[in-house]
Amino acid sequence: MIENLVEATSDQLLAEASSCKYQNYRYVTSTCVDNGDDTIDVYYHFDKDYQMKNIKITVKKGEEIPSISKIYFSAILVENEMKELFGLNITDIAIDYGGHMLLSDEELSSPMLRQQITIEQRGGKQE
């Protein structure tokens, strides 16, 4: 259980991040969890006087998420990382590396997503 958690929609994300900025919270980082279905939980972590505030949005894979980098510029690194490693469709990042901040063209796209492995890919063996 995460304390001081606000659950929001992707449409509410910018308003929630703006509220944190207005209340003098600093942006700490963001984290992702692939739920194993067609959704990903994205957590935004903020701090003020050693008190954490967390915003959680749950999005469908492929759904657009607005960048908070226009509010917290430091989010550009984490948002580019989440975009590459989890395949999140984050729009309007202040500096968007286009999927090549960490990964090259030869590497597996979205390597942090749970990969669906078919029976054929296992060599026809069921586990």
From TrEMBL:
InterPro entries noted in UniProt = NADH_quin_OxRdtase_su_C/D-like, NADH_UbQ_OxRdtase_30kDa_su, NiFe-hyd_3_EchD
Please list the residue ranges annotated as the NADH:ubiquinone oxidoreductase 30kDa subunit domain.
Answer: 11-92
Q: What's the domain of life for this entry?
A: Bacteria
For this UniProt entry, the molecular function terms from Gene Ontology, in alphabetical order, are: NADH dehydrogenase (ubiquinone) activity
> What is this protein called in UniProt?
NADH-quinone oxidoreductase subunit C
Q: Specify the species.
A: Ruminiclostridium herbifermentans
In the record, what lineage is assigned to the organism producing the protein? Bacteria, Bacillati, Bacillota, Clostridia, Eubacteriales
